[in-house]
């Protein structure tokens, strides 16, 4: 079975080879959200959005999942990689929605996911988590259906708000 390091290495090579071909702008975002993975978790972290044009957008993120498992507070680190796709042409107000494919991984599971995002800011995704080894959290195994609801706030917006 593929471990987390191998998955991260493969995703990194894919993204870096894509960026080597063209001029890419990078935007920073703060994300907050909700994740259900056999248990409810709150999520706080950051993402980098890589943009060449607005048809295909790449995002890499790192965050912390926090929740109560069997009445004990637990925190898990999480990394994610997403590709946002919208090939609709002649759109006046940029692209309002994107289809999203990606993967996320923690020290307990790896989960491929699909979903939609509104302006790249509000994400709704679902997937299936595969446990890494037989590791659980506080005696609870984290596998099966995975649902995420995330708000991505561009740091430029935060900076402009406090000017």
TrEMBL record:
Signal peptide boundaries: 1-22
Alphabetic keyword roster: Signal
UniProt key word Signal: yes
Superkingdom of origin organism: Bacteria
Protein's recorded name: Outer membrane protein beta-barrel domain-containing protein
